Amino acid sequence: MKYLTEFRDPALTKTLIQKIEKKAIQEVIIMEVCGTHTMSIFKSGLRGLLPPQVRLISGPGCPVCVTPQSYIDTAIQLTERQDVILTAFGDMLRVPGTEGSLMAQKSKGRDVRMVYSPMDAVQLALDNPHKEVVFLAVGFETTAPAIALSVDQAKKADIHNYSILQSIKTMPNTMEALVVEEDIQIHGFLCPGHVSAVIGVKPYRFLSEKYGLPAVIAGFESLDILMGIYHILDMMDKKDYKVVNEYTRLVSEEGNLKALEMITKIFEVTASVWRGLGSIEGTGLKLKQEYENYDTVKKLGIQMASEQPVKGCICGEILKGKACPLDCRLFSTACTPENPVGACMVSEEGTCAAYYKYGEFRD
Amino acid sequence: MELITLAHGSGGKSSHQLIEGLFYKYFRNDILEQRNDASVLPEILGRIAVSTDSFVIHPVFFPGGDIGKLSVYGTVNDLAMSGAKPLYITAAFIIEEGFPLKDLEKIVASMSEAAKAAEVKIIAGDTKVVEAGSADQIYINTTGIGILPKDMNIGGQNAKGGDKILVSGTLGDHGTAIMALRKGFEFVTDLESDCGLLSGMIQEILQAGADIKVLRDPTRGGLAATLNEISQQSKVGMLLEEGAIPVKQAVRSLCEILGLDPLYIANEGKLLVIAAEEDAERVLAVMKNHPLGKDAAMIGTVMDSPKGQVYLKTEIGGTRILHMPAGELLPRIC
């Protein structure tokens, strides 16, 4: 199957949009939680094709964007140590801290390396026995299994110079935090496809059962997203609220059991600090006690930097879907992808970056 | 294995051996034979086009080419984009101590071959060797000059509403092929760099007598950067049809995996042409007829407004802005 063409079929797209137009009788606000959805929606120009009653708002599902500034500041401080090699996923390098970024540190000659997998960082630790290799452990249930695996493997191989700076987050409880916040209006959710491939369908059930909200687990191609929107409208029309798994080619009811097993072996649930949202109970993962030796903070005896709010930046409001990038006075003036002020402008998946990069066609 | 040492760049005996044994051996021509501090060229009648470029590619040998071939074609192509006939180039090397002599010979031989294909003479050169760690293997700078026909006026400022935008083949091949080789990836692809000589195709296009407004080779920053530059220079807008833009399946897949966009990825042997609407079909036919242009396509139209903006009509019918790329391309987390 050619995933890149079949799920972007122009004729089917047209048919689905017509069906959506018929169903969209009143204003509907749908949050796409995942950053990859946001990007895909902009990249395909989908927003412009939807009827104006269907409003898509972007949620806090970009791992880079939700990483607090204090975390980056701590990482930057770590790069000043001669005994540390700092490793991170590519788009973490550009995230602004209070002063500078990891990219800027790299330019100054500090040992910052981009890796594609935490396992590469473990290999680096093997190759550099006299250095402490720190991996910036960010992301959601998507990156958590690979990070867990890296810790597991490091322990099995008796590698003692590898540790992770923790800021892993989890999705369902975060979505619940958004639902219960009074001034956020969401009529339905497009659930994150990659996260769902790991956790399955069950963890979202509370959305329909407890809050009467329709939710669809959707893939990332245009047709996936349109199908998701159509299902949400259809459920609202029939007042029959469920969690529908539309991404069955990747997401099973139970999720990826092996990955889940690896997560629970290494991590336990904790509170987590979100940029702009503050600390939310039950939305993070931390190393279990028996793996504490792999926790950079404990191992090196360092303190996490304190969180300094960024003046004028409304990333927090944007992550909650309460404001749109165009509402921010820094957007595209003081804050651009070359010189991001807030994290939503940094990652390709960030709402502000998507607005900036792909813009909207104005005749 | 013989290695380049600091002595090779010192101006002494070793330098002399390197120049005689390698550079003269491969680059020999009547002008270089003058052996003076400056080469003196015969009189050139007409306007002269000049271009310079430095090449710092890693790895230096890659599928479809090497830094030597790239450094000649790169500058020759840039000259050709003005409509000039390339005549001469210079070559300056900065080499990291410890670089294998055998590899340098391969690079120099490749430059010599490329210069022959491009019908240019290498007329001046320089070699410096720096300490290990001060440079990454080898850097090459080439500067070229060419002669322009009398009434030739091709440039980024000439695009007008209604003009058509054409490309000579699939986009993103070079950058993707190089990226697939980088440390940390284990992609097995048959992708090759498109590193190629465009002056031949350009001469054929110009001989067809079409009204050519702009010629460019979309190297760094890819098609998106090049079109944004032109739209700003010419103060016009552009609308591209995503479905018409040729991209290899392997490039598309690799970009999809890495979260990159082929329209922002470097090409090293692709020609972008903006031609008057009435001549566009004819130009396309000439391009398709050339060995390097079999995948040539008409991909969009120049609009009078909005000025300085490039839009892309997506395959599903949506429209988005194709921005100037910002910063380094970084893979996304997930």
From TrEMBL, chain A:
InterPro entries in UniProt: Hyd_form_HypD (IPR002780), HypD_1 (IPR042243), HypD_2_sf (IPR042244)
GO biological process terms, semicolon-separated: protein maturation
UniProt key word Metal-binding: yes
Entry GO MF terms: 4 iron, 4 sulfur cluster binding; carbon monoxide binding; iron ion binding
Entry keywords, A to Z: Iron, Metal-binding
NCBIfam families according to UniProt: hypD
PANTHER family associated with the record: HYDROGENASE MATURATION FACTOR HYPD (PTHR30149:SF0), HYDROGENASE PROTEIN ASSEMBLY PROTEIN HYPD (PTHR30149)
Family listed: Belongs to the HypD family.
Protein's name in the database: Hydrogenase maturation protein HypD
Source organism of this protein record: Geosporobacter subterraneus DSM 17957
Automatic annotation (TrEMBL), chain B:
Domain PurM-like N-terminal span(s) in chain numbering: 37-147
CDD domains, A to Z: HypE
One GO-annotated biological process of the protein: protein maturation
NCBIfam families the record matches: hypE
Family according to the record: Belongs to the HypE family.
PANTHER family listed in its UniProt record: CARBAMOYL DEHYDRATASE HYPE, HYDROGENASE ISOENZYMES FORMATION PROTEIN HYPE
Protein name according to UniProt: Hydrogenase maturation protein, carbamoyl dehydratase HypE
Naturally occurring in which organism (per UniProt): Geosporobacter subterraneus DSM 17957
